[in-house]
Amino acid sequence: MRLSHPTAPYQGIPPQDVFFVASDRFVQLGVGYVVPSLNREMYPEQPLEIYVHIEAQPSARDLLLGALLGRAEQIRAQYPGMPGRIYTELAATNWEMLNFYNRNGFANADAQEEHVMPVPPGATQTPMGCQFASAPLGSIQEQGAFLQRLNAYRMTPIGIDFLTLQMQQPYFMALGFYRGGQPLAEMMLTGAVPESSALVMIYTRQEYRRRGIARSLILSAAQLLRERGAQQIVTQVYSRSQAQLGLVKSFGATRRRIITILPSIDIK
């Protein structure tokens, strides 16, 4: 089998981060790539994130994974001493690929889970000196700025098309606490039916964390949700994030299903 790089970016990924594998007769057997990123907001204790992806016939997977791990080591060398992980993301039912990665030293240490919690009762006080308001989304520029703020705290970005679609839903809300026009915390909720609302994203700026601001924002939004007839909130969290789990469990959330599993190798 033979490995090669594309001559141009592949799906926006630099050629040196992409590997094609072919048989000795030049029959394509698959592709793999790595996507490095620094996620200082979501996982400050392990900010270096190197995502690997393989789509290949079984006979070519080991060769591709070896090439991807080699490229990951080159990337890792650019950040000496920075902890992180090499990881992939798979459907929870993809047992074949889960077994492949586990056999090659990846541990199932993280998962994307769907949790359901009742709309909490009661109200809360807005943080001192702050205003509870809708996020400004009146222009393309404001929408882009809102997404940029949200995506700084996500592993997978929200696109403008997704936001445009959700803004058309009857139970869409983009809310936040603002001080001097600057956000301390923001959230996006959406939904098509009154019985349930989806919490797509919530974040608190790092310098304002551990003050109960995210909890206060959820409670403030809950008052609006109850007025609209919502009975429960559905959201997705990563099991590796103790902050996310702790927040939703404080509202009585229960796990409904595992959406994806993220096998990984820690970088120390």
Q: What is the secondary structure topology, with strand pairs?
A:
Blueprint: E1 2-4, E2 18-22, E3 28-38, E4 48-56, H1 58-76, E5 84-87, E6 90-91, H2 95-103, E7 111-118, E8 131-134, H3 140-151, H4 160-167, E9 173-179, E10 182-190, E11 196-204, H5 213-227, E12 232-238, H6 242-249, E13 254-261, E14 264-267
Parallel strand pairs: 4-5, 11-12
Antiparallel strand pairs: 1-2, 2-3, 3-4, 5-14, 6-13, 7-12, 7-13, 8-9, 9-10, 10-11
Any descriptors?
alpha+beta, Aminopeptidase, 2 domains, 6 helices, 14 strands
Low-confidence stretches: none
How would you write the strand order of the largest sheet? Answer: 6-13-7-12-11-10-9-8
Question: Helix and strand succession?
Answer: EEEEHEEHEEHHEEEHEHEE
What's the CATH class label of the largest domain? Alpha Beta
How many strand elements?
14
**Gross geometry:** elongated
Number of helices: 6
Structural class: alpha+beta
Calculate the mean pLDDT score and round it.
Answer: 91
Give the biggest sheet: 8 strands, mixed
- The total number of structural domains is 2
Question: Within the CATH hierarchy, at the fold level, what is the topology of the largest domain?
Answer: Aminopeptidase
First CA to last CA: what distance?
32 Å
- Quickly give the CATH architecture of the largest domain: 3-Layer(aba) Sandwich
